[in-house]
């Protein structure tokens, strides 16, 4: 633990230094300033608190179905949500489904005690990962019922290595671990943990809710008109390079491109390279003329999941970098999906490739070869889309199982 605590402090010092010029690092530091005072000002000692921790936005979306069920079924509880990353906190800091939303303080022994003194949760729920050793130890010492949800474990994780004893010890803090697959359950059994339930991934419940309550996006509706629509979500530079060829080779198709990060230079490059005309979403209104516009660049947040509802085909970005983004938001609408080669660590992507609902592409040529039959053959399009939708429907139900076990 000594080395762990030293590394936490050193990490904080490094982030503080980087924050002198980096916006996200500065948000990370500033967001934690006077955090215990700010928490104490709003959390009453009399509150019955459920604490849900999500590392970032993706983990929040996994936890969201549980948060919303707690609000609906257990209204006596106040809901505290914490984030580690600015990417989650800054986007969801005004989320109406929680009573309190804060950054998680850095995990020193003293901070763990102060945080739990102020938050005083009756139940703690950690989404997917982030095993902060001091916090978990303090939760166990205080007898707080603590759960891990939507978790996934792999053979090469630190828990299963010879030097991972303190991480294995941290797992003792959980009353129950809800995992996504049987492999995770078997791995945990090998190191002595049998308090494990294969519940699946709560994101399936989240995307089902999105599909049931899809919001209209009038600008996208007018942009699409009577044309078929291809939506590319959470794209990065390499994704946009191969998409640009597909766009210019298919002038009869409308495209929505949603960059993962909205740097002006990237957006301007897409506009300059699109032969059929491109425009920013934020520059449009419901009266805009889209007759000579082929590409709508989604330079805003919060509506991509609804935009998939207008599409016929989809591409998910990130596969030429650290890994693909959320494929399930597209799959729930019955869209065939393409993505870059780095998808192997995502179970749902592997499953959908095996089912014929999704395809890996490594070049513009691969993307065109995938797209052409789906564009020209309605039966091929229907098979791929139906496989995607059926997959999301079969895997729903994790939230209900978690709620039943946690709240009885």
For the structure shown, list the relevant keywords.
408 residues; alpha/beta; Rossmann fold; 2 domains; seven-stranded parallel beta sheet; 14 strands; globular
Short description:
This protein is an alpha/beta fold and 408 residues long. It is 47% helix and 16% strand.
Overview of this structure, please?
By secondary structure, the chain is an alpha/beta fold. It folds into two domains: 2-200, Rossmann fold, CATH 3.40.50; 214-393, Glycogen Phosphorylase B (Rossmann fold), CATH 3.40.50.2000. The protein is built from 19 helices and 14 strands. It has a seven-stranded parallel beta sheet with strand order 3-2-1-4-5-6-7, sandwiched between helices. Strands 10-11-9-8-12-13-14 form a seven-stranded parallel beta sheet, sandwiched between helices. It is globular and about 65 Å long.
The major beta sheet can be summarized as: 7 strands, parallel
Shape verdict: globular
CATH superfamily caption of the largest domain? 3-Deoxy-D-manno-octulosonic-acid transferase, N-terminal domain
CATH top level class name of the largest domain: Alpha Beta
Strand content: 15-25%
CATH third-tier fold name of the largest domain? Rossmann fold
Structural class: alpha/beta
- Strand tally is 14
Number of domains: 2
Q: How many angstroms separate the termini?
A: 35 Å
Whole-number mean pLDDT:
94
Radius of gyration based on Cα positions: 22 Å
Task: Bin the helical content.
Answer: 40-55%
Counting DSSP H or I runs of 4 or more residues, the number of helices is 19
Overall CATH architecture of the largest domain: 3-Layer(aba) Sandwich
Can you tell me the residue ranges where pLDDT is under 50 for at least 5 consecutive residues?
Answer: none
In order across it, which strands form the biggest sheet? 3-2-1-4-5-6-7
């Amino acid at each position: 633990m000594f080395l762990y605590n030293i590394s936490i402090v050193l990490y904080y010092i490094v982030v503080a230094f980087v924050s002198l010029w980096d916006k996200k690092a500065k948000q990370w530091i500033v967001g934690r300033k006077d955090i215990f005072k700010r928490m104490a000002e709003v959390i009453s000692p009399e509150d019955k608190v459920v604490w849900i921790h999500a590392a970032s936005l993706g983990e929040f979306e996994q936890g969201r179905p549980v948060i919303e069920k707690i609000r609906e079924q257990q209204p006596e509880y106040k809901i505290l949500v914490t984030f580690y990353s600015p990417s989650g906190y800054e986007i969801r800091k005004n989320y109406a489904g929680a009573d309190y939303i804060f950054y998680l303080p850095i995990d020193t022994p003293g901070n763990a005690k102060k945080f739990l003194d102020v938050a005083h949760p009756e139940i703690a729920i950690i989404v997917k990962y982030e095993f902060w050793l001091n916090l978990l130890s303090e939760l166990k010492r205080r007898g707080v019922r603590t759960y891990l949800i939507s978790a996934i474990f792999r053979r090469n994780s630190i828990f299963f290595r010879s030097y991972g004893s303190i991480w294995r010890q941290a797992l003792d803090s959980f009353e129950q671990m809800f995992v996504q697959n049987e492999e995770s359950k078997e791995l945990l059994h090998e190191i002595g943990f049998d308090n494990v339930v294969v519940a699946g991934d709560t994101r399936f419940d989240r995307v089902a809710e999105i599909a049931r309550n899809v919001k209209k996006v009038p600008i996208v509706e007018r942009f699409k008109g009577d044309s078929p629509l291809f939506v590319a979500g959470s794209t990065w530079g390499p994704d946009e390079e191969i998409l640009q060829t597909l766009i210019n080779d298919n002038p009869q198709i409308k495209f929505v491109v949603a960059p993962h990060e909205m740097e002006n230079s990237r957006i301007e490059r897409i506009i300059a390279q699109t032969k059929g005309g491109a425009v920013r979403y934020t520059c449009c209104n419901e009266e805009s003329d889209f007759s000579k516009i082929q590409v709508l660049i989604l330079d805003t947040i919060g509506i991509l999941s609804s935009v998939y509802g207008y599409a016929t085909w989809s591409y998910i970005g990130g596969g030429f970098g650290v890994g693909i983004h959320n494929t399930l938001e597209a799959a729930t609408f019955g869209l065939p999906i393409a993505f870059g080669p780095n998808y192997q660590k995502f179970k749902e992507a592997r499953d959908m490739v095996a089912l014929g609902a999704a395809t890996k592409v490594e070049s513009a040529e691969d993307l065109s070869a995938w797209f052409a039959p789906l564009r020209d053959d309605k039966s091929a399009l229907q098979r791929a889309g139906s496989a995607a939708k059926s997959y999301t429907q079969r895997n729903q139900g994790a939230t209900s199982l978690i709620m039943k076990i946690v709240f009885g």
